[in-house]
Design a protein that fits this description.
The protein has 309 residues and is of the alpha/beta class. It has 13 helices and 8 strands. The longest helix has 22 residues, at 199-220. The structure holds dihydroflavine-adenine dinucleotide (FDA).
Length: 309
């Protein structure tokens, strides 16, 4: 993986940089490319816009590693409101949460209580609640959380990261649940002890895992989110989907708001199911650094904003 990627991922956890960058007008301006706004209203408007273009949304309120129990409870209340507003608007939109935003870093029982409230309400409203996967030290606790929630309700899914060696094993253990899974490459800075260091190896593992899940879900009728902007992988998986006639109910492509728009439009034009993860909120710094790390050329947007271009 590139030096620039590692530097940007290291920057994503730097408190000094976060506090300074978030006040810098040109950084704030460059973020707008990947985020419709900081308010839930901005995200809902983006979801309506996506819907009118033939795609659907996943809404996520930015934030991670909450500092207090009260904060994690406020985030839970916020997401309960989001679920209501999605339902009131008649939108087909999922919601995605980060376990450490709901207190996993403070107390796992607190996090379980918070997530349980959301999973129960999502089930009542028949909306899917996704649990994001954060850095590797949270994987065991996140899968434990997911398994407990899945035992309560089918309206919950979890993200798995193809860059981790362990994910193959995790996939095998989760497949019998027939649960909604989101396969991503992985966005955190991980050591070569736990994650494939080369892009090529990550891509190969992604294809292997996605094929394995799709093959199994073809029979089970469960849902895989193919969450990538990688046109080569999408092409290969599209061919696989056609060759074994995987129904469109068994998968959705999933991408991030504002990224690879021509590819997003092409998938919709081809009649492929597409969901777009719409992030909003004021705690955007670590998330934005991860977006820059995925494509260091994105730093150019920051430079252009600084130059007023
Ligand atoms: P890759 O990084 O190889 O990019 C493929 C191509 O897409 C690149 O050539 C580039 O052109 C373009 N591209 C990718 N990212 C870009 C960007 N930021 N800006 C501009 N162009 C870009 N991660 C995680 O660890 N836990 C999670 O829960 C999630 N959840 C999640 C949900 C959804 C819906 C998506 C799409 C992604 C995530 N991720 C995630 C992020 C994921 O792990 C990964 O970091 C990004 O998707 C980038 O990887 P790609 O698969 O797109 O491939």
């Amino acid at each position: 993986m590139s030096v620039a990627r590692n530097l940007l991922l290291a920057a994503s956890t730097n408190v000094w940089l976060r506090e300074h960058a978030m006040k810098t007008w040109f950084v704030r301006r460059s973020v707008a490319r990947f985020m419709p706004g900081e308010r839930i209203e901005d995200a809902l408007a983006a979801a309506i816009g996506l819907h009118s273009k033939g795609a659907h949304a996943i809404l996520t309120h930015l934030g991670e590693s909450t500092a207090t129990r009260a904060e994690s409870e406020q985030v839970t209340e916020h997401y309960l409101e989001v679920l209501e507003r999605v339902s009131d608007a008649g939108l087909d939109a999922h919601v995605s949460i980060k376990p450490t935003q709901l207190g996993l870093n403070l107390d796992s029982a607190l996090c379980h209580r918070n997530v349980q409230r959301l999973v129960d309400r999502a089930g009542e409203l028949r909306t899917l609640l996704w649990i994001d996967m954060e850095s590797s030290r949270y994987v065991d606790a996140t899968l434990d959380l997911f398994r407990q929630m899945r035992a309560r309700s089918p309206f919950v899914g979890v993200a798995l990261q193809a860059y981790l060696f362990r994910t193959e094993r995790d996939v095998e253990s989760l497949l019998p649940l027939g649960a909604a899974l989101r396969l991503v490459k992985g966005a955190y800075l991980e050591s070569a002890n736990v994650a494939y260091p080369s892009k090529q190896a990550v891509d190969q593992n992604y294809y292997r895992l996605a094929s394995r899940i799709l093959g199994e879900y073809l029979r089970q009728g469960a849902l895989l989110h193919i969450a990538t902007h990688d046109a080569v992988l999408i092409e290969r998986l599209t061919r696989l989907i056609a060759s074994v006639e995987i129904p469109s109910t068994a998968y959705e492509f999933a991408m991030l708001y504002g990224i690879r728009m021509p590819l997003q439009r092409r998938l919709v034009a081809e009649g492929r199911p597409l969901r777009v993860l719409v992030s909003y909120g004021s705690h955007w710094f670590p998330w934005y650094m991860r977006r820059l790390a995925e494509r260091p050329a994105n730093l150019w947007f920051v430079v252009k904003a600084a130059l007023g271009m």
